[in-house]
Specification:
By secondary structure, the chain is of the alpha/beta class. The chain folds into three domains: 5-106, no CATH class; 139-307, P-loop containing nucleotide triphosphate hydrolases (Rossmann fold, 3-Layer(aba) Sandwich), CATH 3.40.50; 349-378, no CATH class. 38% of the residues lie in helices and 14% in strands. The strands form three sheets. A six-stranded parallel sheet has the order 7-12-11-8-10-9, with helices on both faces. The protein has a four-stranded mixed sheet with strand order 3-2-1-4, sandwiched between helices. A two-stranded parallel ribbon has the order 5-6. Strand 5, helix 3 (87-94) and strand 6 form a beta-alpha-beta unit. The protein is globular, with a radius of gyration of 23 Å.
Length: 384
């Protein structure tokens, strides 16, 4: 399960190519489109085959956790970009009726709740700390209002050298469509909007270059056309919302400018930064902020100090808290269960007692009440 259609399609194409010689039946579900072994198939037919266990692998977006999707024999769940899904969404894939599947959760930026479970629970951890050969550390800087002019001048020089630029904005347009609120009445609504920024950059700041706009409300074909042009180097500056947060690989893009950087969390900021620095050329990430509170400043400083998503997740855990074990919150003041996990002495005593019980009765037949309670707990609590 991957969070965006672009990334899901990329995985589907990769797995079809990688596993071709094994002749596996690989399904694909995104929105209204569904495929099986790279051939179009009706969603109803594909869902029926999945239910009967006639599909070896299914790759999809959030569509995989819709109530009409039932797996016959789901044994392995792989969640890509884990931080983009909620607790319940991730849990739905793992809470099957017949078996509890193995789970592989992948992300460059673990959320606080997951990190806490890694420290104190039974979630195994694998880290890839090294950069691909030839990659350089991305230069990250906070740009206050008075530093914008200098930053724009630097970006122009980079474009003239043949480089490309991402400009990320928190919103699509100036108006709140549901409430019709004026942008000046709310700090979130004051955040830079893609449409406004696109007009400013294309007509004033970067008028001599090719500037395009991208956001989630655009038609699928138009989005794909714009991304194709950007990948081919036909666009110099791409002004976008968080739709490009994951699954976008443009090696020639070396500058990431994040407008209203204080409106994003650490995980998102790190993901945005990861859209550049994908070649041997030096890359830059500029955090443009009009005003930064003390908490927001801690986030910005952490991003400048750390390159590793794991290190940033630790900082995020410190700033935001671990959230709930039994609930849906992935951050904030911990519940009683999560707080208990911080009691190392209690954790050690509990593990010792559990080891002795399992040594005496590995299948827990000698402890029927405990076995029933454990099964109930495993289905109720999603330990990732």
């Amino acid at each position: 399960m991957a969070p965006t259609e672009i990334l899901t399609r990329q995985h589907y194409q990769t797995f079809n190519r990688f596993l071709k010689k094994y002749k596996l039946k690989i399904g694909f579900i995104v929105g209204k489109e569904s495929r099986l072994s790279d051939k179009k198939i009706s969603k109803k037919t594909l869902l029926d085959k999945i239910k009967k266990g006639q599909v070896d692998m299914v790759i999809g977006t959030h569509a995989l956790v819709q109530k009409e999707v039932t797996f016959g024999k789901l044994a392995l769940v792989v969640i890509d970009e884990q931080h983009r899904f909620g607790v319940e969404q991730r849990a739905k894939l793992c809470q099957q009726k017949n078996i509890i599947p193995h789970l592989l959760s992948m992300t460059a930026t673990p959320i606080p709740r997951t990190l806490s479970l890694t420290f104190y629970g039974d979630l195994d951890l694998s880290l890839i700390r090294q950069l691909p050969k030839g990659r350089k550390k991305i230069v990250t800087e906070i740009v206050p209002p008075k530093g914008r002019k200098e930053s724009y001048a630097f970006v122009k020089e980079q474009i003239k050298k043949g480089r490309q630029v991402f400009v990320i904005c928190p919103r699509i347009e100036m108006k709140n469509q549901e409430e019709g609120q004026d942008i000046r009445k709310n700090s979130w609504l004051e955040a830079k909007a893609v449409e406004e920024e696109y007009r400013k950059l294309s007509k004033e700041i970067f008028s001599e270059f090719k500037v395009e706009m991208l956001h989630g409300r655009m038609e699928k074909e138009k989005k794909e056309r714009i991304m194709k042009k950007f990948k081919e180097g036909k666009i110099d500056v791409l002004v976008s919302t968080s739709v490009v947060e994951v699954g976008i690989d443009i090696p020639n893009a070396t500058i990431m400018m994040i407008e209203g950087a204080d409106k994003f969390g650490l995980a998102q900021l790190h993901q945005f930064r990861g859209r550049v620095g994908r070649s041997e050329e030096q890359s830059f990430c500029f955090l443009l902020c009009d005003f930064i509170s003390q908490t927001e400043n801690r986030r910005m400083r952490a991003l400048i100090k750390f390159d590793s998503g794991f290190d940033l997740a630790e900082k995020d855990l410190e700033i935001r808290g671990p959230g709930d074990l039994a609930g849906q919150r992935q951050w904030g003041v911990p519940d009683i269960a999560m707080e208990a996990l911080k009691d190392i002495g209690l954790v050690e005593k509990t593990r010792k007692e559990a080891a002795e019980i399992l040594k005496e009765s590995p299948d827990l037949k000698a402890y029927p009440s405990l076995k029933d309670r454990l099964e109930s707990f495993r289905r109720m609590i999603h330990l990732e």
